[in-house]
Amino acid sequence: MKKFSIAEMARRQVEKAAKMMNLSDHLLKIFMCPKRVLRVTFPVQMDDGTIQCFTGYRCQYNDARGPTKGGVRYHPDVTEDEVIALAAWMTWKCALVDLPYGGAKGGVICDPMRLSERELEKITRRYTTEIMPILGPQIDIPAPDVFTTSKTMAWMMDTFSMMTGHTEPAVVTGKPEVLGGSKGRKEATGRGVFINTRELYRKLGKSLKGTKVLVQGFGNVGSYAAYFLAKEGAKIIGVSDSSTGIIDENGLDVEDMMACIEKYKLLEAYEKGTKVPRDEILYKEADLLIPAALENQIHEDNADRIKVWAIVEGANGPTTPEADEILERKGVYIVPDILANSGGVIVSHFEWVQALSGLYWEEKEVNERLENKLVKTFNEVWEISKKMNVSLRIAAYMVALNRVAEVYKYRGIFP
Ligand code: NAD
Question: Is 144 helix (H, G, I), strand (E, B) or coil?
């Protein structure tokens, strides 16, 4: 089987958009490479007294527009290639929604499901210490990603503060509110997925009421996206997580499932609906699919089996370029990841601004600002897509690459 490189996939998306917009060769060369990739290996004493070595990464892809920003992922399949791709996508996402940030991502190879809380805390504190030389509120600001949470961010913030000798709330986002976390951050990515879906439906003159939705991945992003859609009358007819798929043609009770996850972590503990193999939900007939798990879920071998007319990408990189082409031929609308899931980093930016200023906002203000930014960006991408006759993904990349290119025009190439 052909070895799949996610970083290669990220580069191909850039190349395709660059061609459409006649981007200069020298900028394309810069956009193809990460500025910095740090690999760290560190020992941790486990609860049973043994020592285990863990490997982690932090990639700062491009910082032309400002300090780099991006999540930290804990997963057994984390690789350097994946972290580079995710950092590249953060660069284009931050530029697309016009935040004063570059893009970064980090990850530690570990299986959080098999680690105790104490072990997770030790891994987090040691990983933070190892990447400390390239962290800081004006350098690189982590946030939660797959299998990391506000608790992980609290440990990172505390470790950084202890090492520098002063409390530094602006060094991470997605923190608990009591440490300076922003109101609305936890729901922000899912809310953003919902807002993008609503805007797509509006443009097409369709109603969310009764629309049939499938959600792959029921973590932070998937569960809140499902929650906001259900509140607007959408019918969530299938969801999955790493343990199982669950379907119900009459619509699943999202809040009930969220309560189950809170208590038991996995959907296999959920007793209502009908259990199906995890990937089956991808192939059910519905209107909308929200991939909100991991990369490379919709690829050339399964794209033909997808039976929805719209995909809104909650996850980063869920659709490969080959699948993109297949789905485009079938006329499926895809709201691309760098737009669809940008709600998280938008509110992370608000959190950073609040921490730097020491002035905290009400949730209403956070949500209004998020709504405005997303609607504005969605319209911008939609217009370019129509004007240039390109997919929403290519249009989003054109806006993003152009913003970074503009910065190079004025800053020049050092020295
Ligand atoms: P999470 O850890 O909260 O949830 C991940 C979910 O995916 C879990 O329910 C897990 O069981 C499920 N999952 C894993 N493998 C699966 C598979 N093969 N099939 C079905 N389900 C599977 O993570 P999250 O923060 O919700 O992130 C999900 C995706 O969204 C990732 O691609 C992440 O990079 C992206 N993202 C997250 C944020 C954020 O703010 N958390 C922001 C932007 C993008």
Answer: strand
